[in-house]
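Example for tutorial group B:
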């Protein structure tokens, strides 16, 4: 029954119909369902205008669509208090995290305050904090980039983090699902460690649309994600802020015209996720990822990367949502990328935008979403198995 559901899901992605190529790079950007494309087309051909300045119908309608987008995003992430919290439409995850680092931090923190950021996360969740360092230092705020190891389970190593969190810690910036390992990193434990008064800023770029994401349940204060990874257009993203500890943006506002079409696409994507059922997407991609991980680990020369070399894959397989990354000692990741592309398999080869503590260069990332199939995964495994044999069979001279 999950398989029937999945066939119907896949059929909604026009870019995937009528092609033999397998798109396995959804952690980079996701494909768009027909309803999102339709909404964009309808808007641009029917009511395109700028927002917030209008005396006429299209402009008012555009303003309403922006409002609806924020509401729909609030629903998707289970905002407990839409009246008081803010869904800010920004360019993407990186911009959202920059807003927190460069605006909120500098506006809000002062003398002796500290923030803690693990340096093995996505660079988008490292660089903004590095950029904020000087401005923060001028206000007496310390930015601590921590080369924080992960536990073999893929969780943050809370024991290693504990000594770094002190009385003056005001913010911890963490990631929900890791973009290389695919593991749901169990950020509940971070909240338990830091207590109620520390602001948690969550990079949810790889989790929104992949599994149910609830800011209420996760108990975070900021949440950032990108529309383009959540089946909407590029150039739109979200910074959600719990108002009680959030940025004071109401009286500042965002200058410039909003990305109206992006907001339309994002609202349509949220509708699509709701209709499709994110919990089912999670079940599908976890199962598919398990099949992939299992198949890869049977290949003699392939090594699946975990958060540590000792990662026990079995223990995390139910918490892996999309990305699976591996290395082949006999062939460089770049070469492997070309070989796979020759077989119509689109993967991400080489570096993966990981922070200074990450050592995951020269690897290949396969990342799955709702539209990927068992056949695609098996095809990839088959190509790798043949490569394994070709590389290890001695040639006769
Ligand atoms: N964080 C994570 C975990 C990501 O995977 C990505 C994109 N690969 C980003 C942040 C950055 O997203 P964007 O480029 O859309 O700003």
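The residue assignment follows.
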């Amino acid at each position: 029954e999950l398989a029937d559901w999945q066939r119907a899901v896949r059929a909604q992605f026009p870019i995937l119909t009528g092609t033999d190529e397998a798109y396995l790079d959804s952690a980079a950007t996701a494909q768009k369902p027909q309803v999102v494309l339709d909404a964009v087309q309808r808007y641009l051909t029917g009511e395109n205008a700028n927002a917030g300045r209008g005396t006429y119908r299209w402009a008012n309608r555009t303003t309403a669509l922006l409002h609806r987008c924020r509401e729909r995003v609030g629903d998707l992430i289970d905002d407990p208090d839409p009246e008081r919290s803010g869904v800010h439409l920004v360019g993407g995850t990186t911009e959202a995290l920059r807003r927190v680092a460069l605006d909120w931090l500098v506006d809000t923190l002062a003398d002796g305050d500290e923030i803690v950021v693990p340096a093995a996360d996505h660079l988008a969740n490292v660089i903004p904090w590095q950029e904020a360092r000087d401005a923060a230092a001028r206000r007496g705020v310390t930015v601590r980039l921590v080369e924080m190891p992960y536990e073999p389970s893929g969780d943050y190593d809370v024991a290693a983090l504990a000594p770094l969190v002190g009385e003056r810690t005001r913010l911890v910036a963490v990631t929900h699902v890791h973009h290389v390992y695919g593991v749901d990193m169990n950020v509940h434990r971070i909240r338990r460690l830091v207590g109620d008064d520390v602001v948690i800023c969550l990079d949810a770029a790889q989790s929104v649309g992949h599994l149910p994401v609830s800011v209420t349940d996760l108990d975070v204060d900021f949440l950032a994600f990108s529309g383009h990874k959540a089946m909407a257009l590029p150039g739109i993203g979200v910074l959600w802020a719990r108002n009680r500890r959030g940025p004071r943006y109401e009286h500042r506002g965002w200058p410039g015209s909003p990305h109206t079409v992006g907001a339309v696409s994002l609202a349509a994507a949220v509708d699509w996720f709701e209709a499709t059922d994110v919990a089912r997407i999670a079940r599908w991609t976890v199962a598919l990822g398990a099949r992939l991980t299992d198949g890869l680990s049977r290949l003699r020369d392939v090594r699946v990367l975990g958060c540590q070399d000792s990662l026990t894959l079995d223990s995390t397989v139910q918490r892996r949502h999309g990305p699976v990354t591996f290395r082949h000692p006999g062939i460089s990741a770049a070469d492997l990328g070309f070989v796979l592309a020759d077989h119509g398999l689109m993967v991400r080869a080489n570096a993966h935008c990981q922070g200074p503590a990450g050592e995951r260069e020269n690897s290949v990332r396969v990342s799955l979403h709702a539209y990927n199939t068992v056949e695609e995964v098996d095809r990839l495994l088959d190509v790798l198995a043949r490569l394994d044999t070709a590389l290890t069979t001695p040639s006769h001279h």
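The chain has a mean pLDDT of 88. Compare this with the pattern of hydrophobic and polar residues in the output above.
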